[in-house]
Structure formats: structure tokens, C-alpha cells
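seq as requested:
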Amino acid sequence: MNKRSSIWLILMIIAGAAGLFLIYGISPREPAPPPSTPTADTASEQPSTTAIATSIPSHTGEPVPAPTVGPLFANPDNPRYFTDGTMENGKYKAIYLTGSHTWCNFTDCGNTNPPPVFNYTEFLDFLESHNHNFFRLWRAENARGGEGGDDFWFYPMPYQRSTECCAFDGGNKFDLEKFDQEYFDRLRERVIEAGERGMYVSVMLFDGWSIETKFPETHQPWKGHPFNINNNVNGVNGDIDGNGNGGETHLLASAQVLALQEAYVRKVVDTVNDLDNVLYEISNESSGDSKDWQYHMINLIKEYEAAKPNQHPIGMSVAWPNGSNADVYNSPADWVSFNGDLNNPPVADGHKVVIADTDHLCGICGDQQWVWKSFTRGENPIFMDYYDNAVSGRGIPFENPRQDEIRANLGYTRTYADRMNLVAMTPLPDLCSSGYCLANPAANGAEYLIFLPSGATVTNLLTQLDINRDLQLSLPSDSKIEVDLTASPIELRVEWFNPSDGTIIDGGKVQGGSLSSFTAPFSGDAVLYIYDGTNR
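C-alpha cells:
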């Protein structure tokens, strides 16, 4: 049977049982009916609806989150997550990281010179309102130019200007032997301000989009880079082969360039080493041949911080283009960001802390399903956010309901991460029929967090037949799910969460110790939380 015949056979079977509607495109969600039946098939209590906290308190005039209390390191008790060293019940507390990030949040950017000043405090308010606790602090290496055109500027740069005219951005040429302290003061101030709100900051050290064009038809950012020989007074030439880009600067090709980069990295470390809420990211999407250079920088930071009061986690993001997840996985980094399948994230095995970033998975993309799939697979999901759309040069806020649902659900996952004994939980796809289960299947203190995506049964079947990418489907909700509670032969509490509107429905109780079936009291995506409520 060919693929198309297989598709129609599947659809005919499902349509007869569930009223499947096949469309090309995206259809509206069916409104959620009011709950009227117990959630668990074996539940004895009528459900009641309550609202989950969708945000943490505002920092203005109200209590604020506690500041971070120590540098993060991989949790010895569950290395899928970080810990700050705090102990809870004899184990290290697991710290789950999630949040949104946007391009201009450190280096101002825009189509005027100087570019508009980014309102950083307002950005932190935005993150706080969504219960986010982590973001990437973006650095642009070039002062002018990018994929969209030459008339786009970045400020500040880490180097002082000389008295010699003229660099490509319109200012005097850079003196690469003199740092501009304003740049590093801004860096420190922004990390401190985030830490006061309990947020962790990944300090981006380099950016692959600043040194070479990623697409043949777009403009060349290298023209505005300080290491372009036309933009500095030190005779530094990062374009060794003369091909018009600076790809060699993210290789180990020039001892002169490498020495300048190492000096910059040490200066950054000196600036923020005493702060608890710091992580480092070597580079955003350098090219696929940058592995040795990135490994070198990781080891440089480890060696340099070893003699300092604090040691912070160092991250490596997958290269682009031609990046290899194996290079990232086998790196000396403490945390990693892979490319991969947005619709079926891999199970985090604990070899590294995985920061699953839409930026490397698909760009500006994703939905609430991805958020919960990533979370229940043991990852720490973050979102590449248009935010104020400053990166476009237009400065017009980018309105997109899909982005709103992603932001909200990142915060919802953090709410559950904080409620649960996360350090004891492991992604165990085989425990539930949807394949998305984060669980502590124990006789006492058991917890099961399960995501039931709308249309999961059909999607999984199409995936197995390798035909899920041929069509776009609007699928009905899989309202029923089976969960293996064999390892927890006790009475358990049942809770349903609706990720589309942020409400909780009490599902009563269920007796564990066997395979149990549950039915969602609403349509669409659903989250099921089953837990030992003895001490709650």
C-alpha cells in the first residue's frame, strides 16, 4: 500500500469513530465545554474548577522573587537540571530554567545610528509577568549591517574608538587593544538587575551571524565588524582568505584574533564572576566547522574560573549551518542546545542539561504543545521571541496569539516544576499512552505529569508510517489516556490542567497499583497531574 492510500485508510477509520476533519491549514480549536463528569474513570469526587497562578507578583510595591543564592551547577541527583546547592530532604534542589529571549536585549539594535535604546527594565517586567526565570543576553559582534541590509546598527561595542576616521558604521575606527568600560558596565548592571528578580542570564560571548552571511542573497555583516581590517587601527584582519567574510574568526586560524578573543572572554568573566545568576554561551550559531574553536573557548573559561571564587555553567549551541548535535553532545560544555524535531523532542538522558531553544529548532516558531512535550521529556524549553520587533528595524510590536500561548505555557511549566519534587522525576514515555510523561513512579511520594496533545493518536500513527509531513491535519482531542500506576499502589490525587486557558480541574482520587484510564473533562490539549497527596 502506498503512502496516500495509507493516509486515507487511517482517516476513514478515525473519521468513523471520532468525526475527524481533514483540512489543509489550521482550524480553530473547539471551545472547551464546562466540566460535568469526574476526570478519572475511577474517580469518586466531582471536579471543581480553579485557576492556576499565571504569573509571579509584580516587582513594583509587592514581594518579589528571592534573589539567586549561588552559581548553578549540574544537579548530582538529577543532571537534567541545574541546582544552586540548596538541599531539600537530603537531595539537591532541582532548578528548572525556562523563558523568552530577544535579539536587542543587550546590544541595542535598529535602523538608525545610534539605534533605539532597549528598555531592559520593561523587558524584565515582561518576563516576570509570564513567570519566566531565564533568558539569553544577546551580543552582536558587528557595529553595522546584517542579513536585512547595511543600514542597521548595533550599540555598544566592547572596544574604544580611536582618533582615526572612518569605520563602516560611521564612527572612528576601533582600537582593539583598549576596552570600552561602558560596555562591561552595562553587562554587569543587566545581569545584576535580572538576578534581583531571581532570573538567570546566559551571557552570549560571540555570534555567528555577525561574522558572515548565512544566505547568499543577503547582506554581509562582516563589513561592520571591528576585526575587519578597514574598521580598526591595529592591523587586525579576520578575513584571512580574503573572501569578504570573517568566518575564520570562529576558527583557530589566527593567533592574533584568538588572543584578542581570549582577552575579551577574560574581561567578561572578570566582570560577572562574583554574580550567582550567570551562565555562559560560547556562540550563537557559528558555522559547522567551529567545533575546535568553541571547545577551546569552553576550556579557557573553565581554566580561568577555576582560580576565581565562582565557577559558572558554560553552554554550547548547535552550529548553523551544517551543525552536528554530536559535536555539542560530546563537548566539554555543561549545558547544550540541539537542533531536532519540534514535534517529538528526544528524551533528555542527563548527560548534559538541555536548553531546548526554538531558535535552533526552527527559528520563530512553536506552540504550547512543544512547550509541554519538551518539559515532559526532561528538557528546559526557551523561546526565541520577536518581543518588540526591534530587530526588524520597524519598532512595531509583533502581535501573534501563538507567541502569547508559548510565553504563558513556559510559565505554566515552571509553576508545575516548582510544585513537584522535580529532582526525583524522570522522563518515562512508556508509562503513558501519549508518550509524554515526567514521573517519579514510587510507592510513596509518587508524581506523574503527563501531556496529552490534541490528536496524539493519529499523529503518532502517521509518524510511524513516515507520512506525517505530507499533510496538515486538524485533529480531534484524544480525551482518554492510559497511565501505568503499577509502581504506586496507593491512593493518588488527580488534577487536570488546561494549557489553553490556564485553569485547573480537580479530578478526585484514583487507586494506583495498575494500569489506569483517565478521560479529560475538556477538549484540546490537556495536562494530567497524578500525585501522592498524603503530605499535602
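Residues 401-419 form the longest helix (19 residues).
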